Amino acid sequence: MRDTKESRLLLVLLIAIAFALITVDIRGGRNSPVDGARQAAAAAFGPIENGLSSAVDPVGEAVSAVRDSGTRHDRLAALEKENAALKAKLGSDDRNRSRLTQLDKMLKIAGEGQYGIKGAQVIAIGSAQGFSWTITIDAGAADGIQRDMTVLNGDGLVGRVTTVGPHTATVLLANDPDFTVGTRMENSDELGFASGQGDRPLRVELLNSKAEVKKGDRLVTFGSQADKPFVPGVPVGVVSRIDPSGGGLTRTLYVTPYVGFSKLDVVGVVVQGPKRDPRDEVLPSKPKPTPTPTVTVTVSPSSGTSGTNEQQQ
Questions:
Q1: Quick check: pTM over 0.90?
Q2: Given phi > 0 = left and psi -120 to 50 = alpha, else beta, which region is 227?
Q3: Backbone phi, then psi, for 4, in 5-degree steps?
Q4: Dist. CA 68–CA 63, nearest whole Å
């Protein structure tokens, strides 16, 4: 277009119209008469502008990141809070997993011994009724628990029920000095009586003073008439020391119990005894002995010795 009088007049007119539209748009705000046209233009050209901006304006992204930093900080704080909650839940899950493991072991013993058991949780530990080693469980008469029932866990013999309330019961632990249970030795079937000694190994008096016993031999409960207070076959412990036979009527053994009495959590009360004596079937598998490495040394004849032999020949 050539610079003529008409062209200049047209340019002035277009500028005046543009300023007029701007003034009307600003004064109209959200109700501006050109708002519809602007939105239509944005819908048509917005995606193209957005794509071009993303391709050629990395600085814009950095600015956007800085602008959103407050929001991202809040989001990070929320994530940290969620993480802390998940860790707390994980700790709870670990405890639950530990209880499930204990329960699985206990159910395995119950299955192998054919014991009908009622699961319970230890809710208190301490003296009760003059006993020094007792626990309180969250099962009682309402759950079918009765006095003089055997109590076990996934490791072996825990004790026997002494007092029963509607929803709780007291268990005398096998390591209490007032506790006594009949025992039978694995394989040899030698009978005896085990008594608690607190935090020391159980003391077992074998009826046969000349019984052949060695360290590592294992014992189970002998059982009582009508399975009260003890059912047969429950693992008791492992022989850790043997007193020399002094010509007495009995022989004294010291047995390390399978059960850790200071860390009881999930236990089972035997509400129904086995139809037959499980004998040694409930005992855990014996650990396999670690093979002793052998070293073979091969001595090769020295060159000096070979030379001497050749000269002698």
A1: no
A2: left
A3: -120, 175
A4: 9
Please tell me which residue, 251 or 291, carries the higher pLDDT value.
251
pLDDT digits (tens, 9 = 90+) for 100-159: 888 889 999 999 999 999 999 999 987 655 557 999 999 999 999 999 999 999 999 999
- Quick one: which of 130, 132, 149, 152 has its CA closest to 140? 149
Neighbours of 225 (CB within 10 A): 6
Who contacts 87 (Cβ-Cβ below 8 Å, separation ≥6)? Answer: none
Residue 202's CB is within 10 A of a number of other CB atoms, namely: 24
Contacts of 132 by beta carbon, 8 Å cutoff, 6+ apart: 176, 177, 198
d(CA 177, CA 155): 21
> Quick one: tokens of 261?
């009495």
Q: Which class for 272: exposed (0-12), middle (13-18), buried (19 or more C-beta within 10 A)?
A: middle
Distance CA 28, CA 21 (A): 10
Spatial distance between the Cα atoms of 182 and 277, rounded to a whole number of angstroms: 14
Q: What are phi and psi of 272, to 5 degrees?
A: -145, 125
Neighbours of 105 (CB within 10 A): 15
Residues 202/195, Cβ–Cβ less than 8 Å: yes
- CA distances to 81, 171, 187 from 138, rounded to whole Å, are 35, 11, 37
CA distance 258 to 235: 7
Confirm if 269 and 254 have CB atoms less than 8 A apart.
no
Residue with token string 């029920």: 161
d(CA 70, CA 72): 5
Measured between alpha carbons, how far is 222 from 184 in angstroms, rounded to an integer? 5
Q: Which residues pair with 128 in a beta bridge?
A: 131
Helix (H) / strand (E) element for 124: namely strand 116-125
